[in-house]
Design brief:
Elements: H1 2-20, H2 24-35, E1 43-49, E2 52-59, E3 62-71, E4 74-81, E5 84-89, E6 92-94, H3 98-115, E7 126-136, E8 139-148, E9 160-166, E10 172-179, E11 185-197, E12 200-210, H4 220-225, E13 229-235, E14 238-244
Length: 246
């Protein structure tokens, strides 16, 4: 009996040691599988967010990310693809000045990006760094910092993200980021309303900002635990549908 317990303890210790020695890349890879994000690259995903319809079609390296809404009586469709950005008004291609095209591109890409995380975290421009493990609300998390190289990192390549990934289930829950547009700032998102749609995990979030602007990005988890954040809004995806493509 004592031999059995000794062997069991060795196996347990070995598993713990294996988990604790994981690299940031290995953690992200496991998170991709655990959340079904590996299926996103060949899927059509649609949802509504703040009365705007979003549709993403990704297949074999090609992508088309769109949003559709009405502005007064005009039907607007913004479309971002491998070919660049296009805006349609009542199904007619509209000329868009470069500065506005950059703004629309960022808006479309941002919503689609956040909707399918951790998909996208293995893009070539992504740089990963493993931070110290933490506990939030009694659950242990890996803490991975994401930054971007200027080459391929997009207009917001200077933004920095942190993702909290469960040590037991490898699901990505909390996230935070710093940004530089519109005066800059930091945000922290608390997950809620987990659901699985055709094998892909989706979350809604409570969106927070800092009370103290000097609070460092990496310390937003502590600020959240200490009720030092201010709730700004809710990020709710509605009517989510997923069609897996061959």
């Amino acid at each position: 009996m004592r031999n059995f317990l000794f062997i069991a303890l060795l196996v347990f210790a070995s598993c713990n040691q294996k988990n604790s020695s994981l690299t940031a890349q290995q953690i992200i890879d496991k998170a991709m599988i655990a959340t079904g994000a590996d299926k996103v690259s060949n899927a059509k995903i649609a949802f509504d967010f703040r009365n705007i319809n979003y549709i993403a079609i990704r297949n074999a390296g090609s992508f088309k990310l769109s949003r559709i809404f009405k502005e007064d009586s005009v039907l607007i469709k913004d479309e971002l693809s491998n070919m660049g950005f296009k805006r349609f008004k009542n199904n007619q291609l509209s000329n868009t000045i470069d500065s506005m095209a950059v703004k629309y591109t960022s808006s479309v890409n941002s919503v689609h990006y956040f909707s399918v995380l951790p998909y996208g975290l293995n893009d070539k421009a992504v740089k990963k760094k493993l931070l110290e493990d933490v506990v939030i609300k009694g659950e242990a998390y890996y803490k991975v910092q994401i930054s971007f190289s200027e080459d391929g990192g997009g207009e917001d390549f200077e933004d920095v993200f942190i993702y909290w990934i469960g040590k037991e289930d490898f699901k990505m829950d909390y996230l935070a980021y710093s940004y530089h547009t519109d005066g800059g700032g930091k945000r922290f998102r608390e997950p809620k309303n987990e659901r699985i749609v055709n094998g892909i995990r989706f979350l809604d979030y409570n969106n927070y900002k800092t009370k103290n602007t000097s609070t460092k990005l990496k310390n937003l988890d502590k600020a959240f635990e200490n009720n030092e954040l201010i709730k700004l809004s809710e990020i709710n995806l509605e009517n989510v549908t997923v069609t897996l493509l061959d």
